Amino acid sequence: MLTLADGSIIRWDAAPELANSEAFASRVTKAGAIAAVAHSRATYEETANGYASGFSHVTHFYNGCTMYEKRGQVVTAGTVEATYLDDGVTLELIADGKHIPRGCLLLALKIKGEDKLVLISDSCVFDGPIPDGYDGVTDLCFDFEGEIAGSKLTLEVACRNMMKHTGASIVDVFRYASTNPCNAVGLT
């Protein structure tokens, strides 16, 4: 597919715990595209190995990412910790006030710094059934099983939310939504 695409693939997402993911990341980056970690159950070690092999970005950081937890009788770290410890990795934040709590937005900003944050919309155009008791129907999209499947967030609102929840300036948040995404995929 990379050969057929002839350079038109800018980014390709995968889970670093999958078989051959390190070869995948290496091949994607050699073709000039960005390999991104996405919706993964990877351990810290699997994610760190992925970064060493060419993954350099995380899709939907905190959402669909593993983090510190107890698995059976073993305590493990995950994608979140591996991302925080790798200075070269950028991450995406869905700042809609539902996907990521304020404290996690502040932590991402403090640890990764202003140049490694990318604001995204996670926009979708479909809605499944709304779960009983859910009061934020204007902000989220649901799949057909009533699970959160995306957001109706716009980047303008993401910028406003990031300013509100982190104290970032308008100049900073516009960079998170424009310059930083371009830098992450090599467009500057």
Structure description:
By secondary structure, the chain is α/β, with parallel strands linked by helices. The protein is 36% helix and 17% strand. The chain is built from eight helices and nine strands. It has a five-stranded parallel β-sheet. Strands 4-5 form a two-stranded antiparallel ribbon. A two-stranded antiparallel sheet has the order 8-9. Helix 2 runs parallel beside helix 3 (44-53) and helix 3 (44-53) packs across helix 4 (79-85). The longest helix is centred in the C-terminal third of the chain and has 12 residues, at 155-166.
Number of extended strands: 9
User: Biggest sheet, strands in spatial order?
Assistant: 1-2-3-6-7
Pattern of helices and strands: HEHEHEEEHEHEEEHHH
Which regions have little confidence, pLDDT < 50, spanning 5+ residues?
134-138
Helix content: 25-40%
What number is the mean pLDDT? 88
Radius of gyration: 17 Å
Alpha plus pi helix count: 8
Shape: globular
Q: Tell me about the biggest sheet? A: 5 strands, parallel
What does this entry show, briefly?
The protein is of the alpha/beta class. The protein has eight helices and nine strands.
